[in-house]
Each structure stands twice: as C-alpha cells, then as structure tokens.
C-alpha cells in the first residue's frame, strides 16, 4: 500500500531520480499518441485482426535490418508496406474472402521471420528479443526523436483524413458520392496503421503493440460516443496505463512493456464490468 501511504516516493520520485524512467515515460506517451487515434478507426472499422497481422508482419523487416546492419525502424516500415501491398494484391485477384489473404500473409511473414532469426548468428538474438518484447527502459534520445517524428506523421494523417475516414466508416457509398475516394482513404488508413505500429514497437514490443493499439480505443468507445472524444479518451487511458505500468514495473521488477499493456486490458475489463452492471450493453457512436 505504499502508493497510498507514501505517494511522493511511489508516484513521483522514480521519475525524478532516474533518467531511464523519464525517457521511458516519454517513449510510452509517444507510443500512445501514435496508436490511440489510428487505433480508434481500426476498432470502429472492425480491422483488429488486420492490425494484429500487420503488427507481426514487420518482424521480417526487423530481422533483415539487424542482419545487414540497417535501421530496424526503416526495415519494419518497409515490411509493413510490403504486407499491405500484398494483402491488397491478393484481395483483388483472389476469389477468397478478405480474411483469407490476411491469414495467408500473416502466416507467411511470421514464418519468414522465424526462418531469418533461426539462420542468423546467436549474437543477434538479444537485440531481436528487444523488439519482440520491448525495451522501453533502454530507449535513447535518438529513439525518442524517431518516435516523435513518426507519431507526428501519424497524428497529422489522422487529422487530414478525418472526414474521409468518418464517412467511409459509416457509409462507403456516400463517401464515393461525395468524391472522398474511399479506396485512397483506405490505403491512407493502412499506411497510417503501419506507421503507428512502427512508432510503438520500440516501447512495448512487437508482440504486444497490438493490444496497445486496440485496448484503449475499445475502452474509450464504451465510455463516450463522439469519435473525437473516443480518440481523446483513448489517449488518456493509454497514458494512464503507461504511467501506472512503468511504476509497477519499477517497484516490483516486472517487464515494463507487458505491464503497461496488461494495464490497458485491465481498464477495458473494468469499463466492461461497469457498463454491464449499468445495464447499458449498446455502444452508440456519433460523429
């Protein structure tokens, strides 16, 4: 109960006395800014499975970047864009449902990553584990700058395409009649999704970024109705999970990334419980 009996020592002092905690805090908050706004559209459009597949689809790019000594962020971004292009290509030329093309490339990219990792020397395994499971307490100033730039791009894209995403989400035919070019808007949404994933794997790890992308917006959607309010609430929920998760990790020596993500899931379950007890089971959204 130290967080109640000694609030300054538990809540504030770790960030004052430790540089790595302050950097981890900034890294986590930037990850939230990159994922929560675009994650709102992922949740509303029912694209969560694609988000999961894309989160794992960046693994081959990470593995190749480490083997050739390139930039892991660039490698992950290239792999994400290749997967998006592949899904669209198979979707346009295959009679199978959309989820079949996603599953096919999801399995293929994951298998390719395992093959690349298993064929590389053991010296790379530690670095690759960092991106698989996160190393938020080890971020550098250059990592923070990279996150800041990518998060800024993701936020700018969400703002610029807000109207197109909104109309496309609720009525794609209407979007086409309004000249909003839903195919282009969908491609932009996928690109922003890839960017947000790349911006976040440094903080929470590739295997955990999916929960960070979906859980805060899902929780927010049960608490508020308007889409801008959902985005803001998702950022607040994600930020709270970052702060509490980091502090729990610091005081109890747990994995920082996993603790933060677990916090987002706990908040979702708590919001679901409150909604269930109130007897309000329907989520009604407004523009």
N-to-C order of helices and strands: HHHHHHHHHHHHHHH
What is the SS-derived class?
Answer: mainly alpha
Low-confidence blocks of residues? none
Query: What is the helix fraction of residues, given as a range?
Result: over 70%
Mean pLDDT: 83
Gross geometry: globular
- How much of the polypeptide forms β-strand, as a percent range? under 5%
Q: Can you walk through the features of this model?
A:
This protein is mostly helical and 287 residues long. The protein has helices at 2-5, 7-17, 19-44, 48-57, 59-68, 72-93, 98-119, 125-133, 141-160, 162-170, 172-177, 182-204, 209-221, 227-252, 256-278. The radius of gyration is 19 Å and the shape is globular. Helix content is 82%, strand content 0%.
Could you give the topology of this structure?
Elements: H1 2-5, H2 7-17, H3 19-44, H4 48-57, H5 59-68, H6 72-93, H7 98-119, H8 125-133, H9 141-160, H10 162-170, H11 172-177, H12 182-204, H13 209-221, H14 227-252, H15 256-278
Helix pairs in contact: 2-3, 3-9, 3-12, 3-13, 3-14, 4-7, 4-13, 5-6, 5-7, 5-8, 6-7, 6-12, 9-12, 12-13, 13-14, 13-15, 14-15
């Amino acid at each position: 109960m130290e967080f109640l009996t000694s609030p300054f020592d538990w809540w504030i002092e770790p960030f004052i006395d430790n540089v790595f905690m302050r950097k981890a805090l900034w890294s986590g908050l930037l990850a939230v800014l990159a994922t929560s706004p675009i994650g709102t559209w992922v949740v509303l459009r029912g694209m969560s499975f694609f988000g999961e597949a894309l989160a794992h689809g960046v693994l081959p790019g990470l593995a190749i970047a480490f083997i050739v000594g390139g930039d892991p962020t660039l490698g992950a971004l290239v792999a994400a864009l290749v997967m998006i292009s592949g899904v669209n290509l198979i979707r346009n030329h295959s009679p199978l449902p959309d989820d079949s093309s996603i599953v096919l490339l999801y399995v293929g990219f994951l298998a390719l990553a395992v093959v690349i990792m298993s064929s590389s020397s053991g010296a790379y395994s530690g670095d690759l584990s960092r991106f698989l499971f996160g190393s938020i307490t080890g971020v550098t100033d250059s990592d923070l700058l990279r996150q800041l730039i990518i998060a800024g791009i993701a936020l700018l894209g969400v703002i610029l395409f807000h109207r197109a995403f909104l109309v496309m989400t609720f009525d794609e035919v209407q979007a086409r009649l309004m000249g909003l070019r839903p195919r282009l808007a969908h491609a932009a949404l996928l690109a922003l999704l890839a960017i947000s994933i790349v911006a976040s794997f440094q903080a929470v790890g590739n295997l955990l970024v999916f929960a960070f992308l979906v859980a805060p917006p899902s929780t927010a959607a049960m608490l508020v109705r308007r889409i801008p309010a959902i985005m803001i609430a998702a950022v607040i929920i994600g930020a709270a999970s970052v702060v509490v998760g980091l502090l729990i990790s610091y005081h109890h020596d747990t994995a920082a990334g996993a603790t933060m993500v677990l916090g987002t899931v706990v908040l979702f379950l708590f919001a679901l419980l409150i909604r269930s007890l109130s007897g309000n089971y329907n989520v009604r959204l407004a523009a």
